[in-house]
Specification:
heterodimer, A: alpha+beta, Heat Shock Protein 90, 3 domains, five-stranded mixed sheet, 59% helix, 15% strand, elongated, B: alpha/beta, Rossmann fold, Arc Repressor Mutant, subunit A, five-stranded parallel sheet, four-stranded antiparallel sheet, 11 strands, 41% helix, CheY-like_superfamily (chain B), WalR-like (chain B), transcription regulation (chain B), phosphoprotein (chain B)
Chain lengths: 335, 219
């Protein structure tokens, strides 16, 4: 907020000033009329004016200081909707009215916010319990199809499960609550489990999997990392388009961090799309791949960020796509 | 080996039992959720698969009670997957935790680990049909002659030695290999099989692996 100049301050007091000048000239005229010594008149007028001007100047200074204090308070407060609770109480009539209006507005807004927060939390809890409930029938179906070796339906069931999982993590990623548990993990084990999870799809696509130096220790949440890796591998599988499909998973230890690269030789991403793949709802400008929600990579990056990991992408259209996760060493993850 | 299943969803319970039966385990289905500890006294078993959301009492409490009654490993099988659930299950004394929908491969692996069946036998070599597989040197010996096997060939042969008289299909073989971090694709597997047979023929083994048309191979 810009600082008010003395002139603007005077402008606000124009009626008061005009009245005083009018009053002063009245007195001067009266004094002249009664033949008072002109030097006395001038002296009194100058005295009055200078007293008035210095009073105005000081009150301007004070007002400016007070206003600046309020502005600073508002600027320093992170959640500015709490401003009404820390503002100094005003003394004069009009400011009291403003103060009252502000208090009321803030209270209404805070009530609304807590109501929305409560609803959001209830919704998240519902999503969480829904996901758990629906996994019971999905689990039953999955086992049944395994036992009867019905791979077509088993695959459909897997899809059901993955979509449910995505919804669950979407809800979790929005949640302000911390639902992760950082522990020591062997990357190889986590990757192995993800590969196993997708083994049917990978074998069906005749994917050649190569792993290099993935026997590394990282500190992060296992389930979240599994989810992130699943999104990446799922994407790779979806966009394989060559005779020979290849997935290369490489670990690399650079003193300060550990980098995990997952490279596929699928259709790649055009450079115009590349910057947008982490956006929510972005499904690519190629409409022929319509079976995507545009949430996978968005979530992967969001969850990575919350875990304090970095997720990057590089790609050459028609050639390859590389997803890279950077695990910092020895730094505290974001809480 | 006998496994007790405590799970309130009927279909899951029955299918789980079917799955375990087909892999050579006996199963006991405990369904009297009000008096589980009473019911469990009637049977003996080596492992418990325990759901968390159950009528009357939750899985954690049941786990604590069971621990007092007997000393069998307990694996939690559940649809709940938050960190809190995992933590509670460990605190209650469970040795492992697997979430629904189960990946059968992983479930079976965890059961094996819990029953401590998975440590690959401490043998140095396995002998079947006069052929000896040296587990340390990856060498196959027959009538005084021997051939060296590659990593993949050895692994493939190992499964056949461990599952005598069982037909192992291509799919099953792939799953087993993947489970042990050998991510071969079908073509590579077939190439390996062919090469393995050729190698074995060189030292006169033609009777070891039998090709069962359309089904797989058998030792």
């Amino acid at each position: 907020m810009e600082v008010v100049s003395f002139l603007t301050f005077l402008e606000g007091k124009i009626s008061e000033l005009l009245f005083q000048i009018f009053f002063l000239s009245g007195i001067v005229f009266l004094l002249i009329f009664y033949d008072v010594d002109s030097s006395f008149i001038i002296l009194s007028a100058v005295l009055f004016l200078s007293a008035q001007i210095s009073f105005l100047w000081f009150s301007f200074q004070k007002k400016q200081k007070d206003s600046q204090r309020i502005i600073n308070l508002a600027d320093e407060l992170q959640e500015s909707y709490y401003i009404s609770d820390i503002l100094p109480k005003p003394g004069d009539l009009q400011n009291k009215a403003y103060y009252y209006a502000l208090k009321k507005a803030c209270k209404a807004m805070n009530d609304k916010i807590s109501q929305i927060e409560k609803e959001k939390q209830e919704y998240e809890e519902y999503v969480e319990s829904f996901a758990h409930e629906i996994k019971i029938p999905i689990g039953a179906l999955s086992l049944t199809f395994d036992n009867t070796k019905n791979y077509a339906l088993k695959k459909e069931t897997d899809k059901l499960y993955r979509l449910t999982e995505q919804m669950l993590y979407y809800a979790r990623s929005e949640s302000t609550e911390k639902d992760y548990f950082v522990k020591k993990l062997n990357l190889e084990e986590v990757i192995h489990n993800v590969i196993l999870k997708f083994r049917h799809d990978l074998i069906d696509h005749k994917v050649i999997i190569e792993t290099h130096a993935i026997d590394q220790i990282v500190y992060t949440d296992e389930k979240w990392l599994t989810f992130i890796l699943s999104q990446i591998i799922q994407n790779s599988i979806k966009y394989f388009d060559k005779q020979e499909n290849k997935l290369t998973i490489t670990g690399q230890d650079n003193d300060t961090n550990i980098i995990l690269s997952i490279k596929d030789n699928g259709c790649g991403i055009s450079s115009s799309d590349l910057s947008r793949v982490f956006e929510k709802g972005f499904t690519g400008s190629d409409r022929s791949k319509s079976n995507s929600t545009g949430v996978g990579l968005y979530l992967a990056r969001k969850l990575s960020f919350r875990l304090g990991l970095k997720l990057d992408i590089a790609s050459e259209e028609k050639e390859y796509t590389i997803l890279q996760i950077t695990f910092p060493k020895g730094t505290v993850h974001r809480i | 080996m006998k496994i007790a299943i405590i799970e309130d969803d009927k279909i899951t319970r029955l299918e789980l039992s079917k799955l375990l039966n087909s892999h050579g385990y006996e199963t006991v289905l405990l369904t009297d959720f009000e008096n589980l500890s009473e019911e469990s006294k009637k049977y003996s078993f080596d492992l418990i698969l325990l759901d968390i959301n159950l009528p009357y009492e939750n899985g954690y409490e049941i786990c604590r009670k069971m621990k007092k009654l007997m000393s069998v490993p307990i694996i939690f099988v559940t649809s709940r997957d938050t960190s809190a659930d995992e933590l509670l299950s460990i605190q209650a004394g469970g040795i492992d935790f697997i979430t629904k929908p189960y990946d059968t491969l992983i479930l079976l692996e965890k059961i094996k680990r819990a029953l401590q069946l998975s440590n690959p036998n401490n043998f140095r070599e396995l002998t079947k049909k006069d052929c000896t597989l040296d587990l340390h040197l990856s060498v196959l010996k027959y009538e005084g002659k021997s051939i060296e096997l590659t990593r993949n060939e050895f692994r493939i042969l190992y499964y056949f030695f461990m599952n005598e008289d069982k037909i192992i299909s291509k799919e099953e073989l792939l799953e087993k290999l993947w489970n042990d971090k050998y991510y071969l694709d079908e073509n590579v597997l077939l190439v390996n099989m062919t090469r393995l047979k050729k190698k074995m023929k060189e030292i006169g083994i033609i009777h070891l692996l039998e090709n069962i048309r359309g089904k797989g191979w058998k030792l």
